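User:
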Amino acid sequence: MTTTFNLVDLFEQAADEWPDRIHVIDEHQQRTFAEMDARANRLAHHLAEQGVGPGDHVGIFALNRVEWVETLWAVFKLRAVWININYRYVEDELAYLFNDAGLHYLIVEPEFVERARAVAPALPTLVIGPDYESALADQSPQRDFGQRSGDDLYILFTGGTTGMPKGVVWRHDDVVMALGGGIDLRTGETMQHPEDFLAKGRNGFMLTTLPVAPLMHGATQWSLMGQSFVGNCTVLRARFDPHEVWNTVEQLHVNLLMITGDAMARPLLDALDEPDEPDEPETGHDLSSLFAISSSAVLFSQTCKDRFLDRFPNLVITDAVGSSEGGANGLTMVSRGTVMKGGPTVSVARDSVVLDDYLRPIAAGSGVIGRLARCGNIPIGYLNDPVKTAATFVTGADGVRYVIPGDFATIEADGSLTLLGRGSVSINTGGEKVFPEEIENALKAHPGVLDAVVVGVPDERWGERVAAVVQPVAGAEVTLDSIQTHCRVHLAGYKVPRQLTLVEHVVRSPAGKSDYRWAKRVATDSPSSSESSGSA
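Assistant: Predicted structure:
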């Protein structure tokens, strides 16, 4: 018999192995593994009564909270599929997502009910609160569902910073390997049986983890699910507040903090030097429980990495490369003073390669820039989009099926992988391809720059020119001349920004991802832009 991996089967075996361990804690409540399993069973029975069955899509429209997790497991128990909904979306975006996802049912946070009903008034909906608790109370806590399969589906809606969101369709079997810890990122060792997750949990001590990003973001989903498979505890907070993060680390003895790049790293670092309240002195935190920080999904600059290591010399910091379509592609252990060539340079995960324009793996040390790809355990494709599926999921020159999400990278002489940036936001200036992340990393080392996003804007001479949208440090005077002088030390001349737009606040997603559509609009339209007409 072929061994298969099903996500909720992995959770249930953990609940049977460690029933009394704490599974999830939010601001107001907590659940042991056994309590979570029983309440998810009750919710699954309620959903079944509402007609939800295998393959049906159930939306989760909520902030990080225990009920988000209960919904996650309950839907999978029925072999249905849950759909993550971005709570920042306005009605037009929600209408697109609800329609594209084909929702059969919705579980929603009270503060989002009005928005949801304006978009889909006829959609069956359960509001978290008294109605939700009443629905669960009327149902059985027994786990009496049919057999599930590794072919059951998981869909992750992703994107929206450069276009409308798209649903990535995975089989459970494949996503466990690509994102759920089924393949060890460091060793390439592969789990052979579901029970291997229990063995891994028995061999270590119970970790308490705090993934800071929203559960609507894939990184936090996979932190939660992956940690649950090995019996660990996950702490959730509804919204990101840097002071609250450090208070939580101290109060709940968090061991592992998971962030998404500088958008979280910088405010967290700054908060350590500030009082929680303006009129109160900074008393410091006991953060002795914290021994690791992990970042993924967006740029984590060397400046912030060094600041963490200055404050926590023994902290283990990792920076991971991956995507919703491509899974985990690599990992690096962070060292002080490393020179970044764009994104991080990481050890390559098994099944990850860089392909050239002819879909052939590039040779290590060749200097060729190609597109990051993965084979083996990869998605089925995009939901309702055969054109994008055909463009992203391709057959290579070697006859192997690959997923190519759009990131450019190169393979170093030692076989490591350097991520350069997403092709959809790369800048073509005078025939040279420029990747924003490399410039953003340089900008964030400028003492007057708090945050920055780099885009290309139209230029009569160069086709596009490099434009920096910068949020200055409070009280700092940042000019285009100072930016260019600083960047010339770190970048080739054609990469140096030739336009600067200062903003009070850089717009990012709740997970910290750059909103390139917003940045391009600001850089193109803002009258406060300063430009350099000469070559940089």
